[in-house]
Amino acid sequence: MPSLLEAIIASFIPSNSDIGSLFWAKRLLVALIVFGGFWLLAQAVCSVINRWGSKVTAFTKTDLDDRIVQRVTPSISLLLTFLGIYYAFRTLPLHEKIFRLLSGGLYVSIVVIVCILIYRVLHETLLWYAERQQDGENGTFSRQMAPMVEKITMLFIIGGALMAVLKHFNYDILSLVTALGIGSLAIGMAAKDTLAHVISGFTLMIDRPFRIGDRIQLASGQIGDVQDIGLRSTKIKTLDNQLLIIPNSDLCNTILTNQAFPDNRIKGRINVGVSYGSNAEQVKALLVQLALEVEDVLQEPAPEAFFVSFGESALNMALFFWVEEYAILFATTDKINSKILGRFREQGIEIPFPIRTVTLKHEQGTQTPQ
Fold first, then answer.
1. 266-346: CATH architecture
2. Long-range contacts of 6-13, Cβ-Cβ distance < 8 Å, separation of 24 or more
């Protein structure tokens, strides 16, 4: 009888395995509730953003907020979902090593998602500013500085994410920062020329003596169009289709001419000499008339001709004219030169060759050899 009674009583008392199973079931239920709550929150947030976001952003004059909302909505949903998984795992009584491994992996994933979220906001903002600059509006950043600012900010984002991850795994951040500081000082001393080029690159982008697409003339006389302004060097495409790569510090410390500033108009000059028997006023009027006959020459400012100087064998004239784009200056000069040559021949205006008069003097008492 006692054995039977003990068996009946034991049937109503759960065993240790049953207690463990019940405990795990409760923990799993709590984890599912936590994850389900975050998942529902993610769906609700996305639904609210999709439904009311465009209506709220419609009150602003710019489309920047619309673009940011559209880019960050998927990342917000993913972030809330991973947060739900992270906190759900923290409710489970896992083994310490397994818990640290899973928890650490989820934390790193959350940090990566936050970095992506910040990058998308930054990227859309810089694109918006670049488009405003391209459309001619007064943007805060120029088109040349936007990629540079994006790269530098990405370095800070990655650095902040790395510090957050290291702190989560209980690494000494102070010693790491100290080591990086000493290493940076050593690298800076060894690469001072490169750093000088980089600092000069920032100076060029802030001071903006030229922009991408501008045609500049270097102190050496080379002319080309600016293709790219990088951290270390600037690339210039010359008129004969060659690429000049010039260190930024050299460009900062030299004199150059920006033919595209303040606008793309450029002034051309043609020098021509006529014989001393020519009527200077008639020649000047003819030069202006010939310039106006060329379609690419601007009517305003009007072409001008001047009697510049008395040459050894000619009266030196100069014709000045303007064209809309510096890229067509050479072609326009060729057209005017051709017209000058043909019209001078028709009207009998001589372009003389260089003439020198040599006088030979014989001293008295010298005899001319027979």
1. 2-Layer Sandwich (3.30)
2. none
Query: Distance between CA 84 and CA 40 in Å, rounded?
Result: 10
pLDDT of 267-323, one tens digit each? 999 999 999 989 999 999 999 999 999 999 999 889 999 999 998 889 999 999 999
Q: CA–CA separation, 90 vs 93, rounded Å? A: 8
Cα distances (Å, whole numbers) of residue 280 to 105, 319, 333, 336, 341: 88, 13, 21, 19, 16
Domain ranges of the chain: 17-167, 202-258, 266-346
The whole-number mean pLDDT for each consecutive block of 10 residues of the chain, a chain of 370 residues, reads: 43 48 72 82 80 68 73 80 79 71 79 84 78 52 62 79 78 65 61 70 78 86 87 87 89 85 87 92 94 92 93 92 89 94 92 77 58
Between CA 96 and CA 295 the distance in angstroms is 84
Give long-range contacts, CB 8 A cutoff, 24+ apart: 8-11.
Answer: none
Residue in the block written with tokens 């004239």: 317
Neighbours of 145 (CB within 10 A): 20
Beta sheet of 257-258, edge-to-edge order: 243-247, 233-238, 223-229, 215-217, 257-258
Q: Report how far residue 111's alpha carbon sits from residue 109's, in angstroms, rounded to the nearest whole number.
A: 5
Q: Which CATH class is domain 202-258?
A: mainly beta
Percentages of the chain per state (helix, strand, coil), in multiples of 5: 60, 15, 30
Round to whole Å and give the CA distance between 269 and 271. Answer: 7
C-alpha distance from residue 157 to each of 85, 122, 154, 163, 171 (Å): 24, 11, 5, 10, 19
CA angle 161, 162, 164 (to 5 degrees): 65
User: Cα Rg for the chain, rounded, in angstroms?
Assistant: 40
